[in-house]
Task: inverse folding
């Protein structure tokens, strides 16, 4: 997933070196098949504490599986602090290497 736009920040992947940027009101976290769900969950929890919302994007079944697991783990992390979150899934078109792909977008907000 190199040269991806608007996918902004890879989490839980030791090979990822994309700088973080804010988009809209939620920070965008990019998840790959190799992302560790606990690392992504920590990133989601941190962004939720800081901004109140986060956006997770994934392309493909493996990456989406890791993203969903990360949301569940983040929900457990945040519930210990009295923060309840919801996840709103949708599709989003992204351009990767000048090729259009459809990604899963998970918007995470406080309940």
Result:
């Amino acid at each position: 997933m190199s040269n991806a736009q608007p996918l902004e920040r890879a989490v839980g992947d030791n090979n990822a070196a994309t700088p973080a940027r804010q988009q809209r009101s939620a920070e965008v976290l990019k998840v790959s098949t190799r992302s560790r769900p606990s690392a992504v969950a920590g990133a989601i929890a941190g962004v939720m504490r800081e901004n109140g919302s986060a956006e997770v994007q994934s392309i493909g079944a493996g990456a989406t599986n890791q993203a969903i697991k990360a949301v569940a783990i983040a929900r457990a992390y945040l519930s210990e602090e009295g923060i309840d979150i919801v996840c709103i899934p949708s599709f989003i078109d992204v351009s990767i290497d000048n090729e259009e792909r459809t990604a899963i977008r998970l918007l995470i907000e406080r309940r």
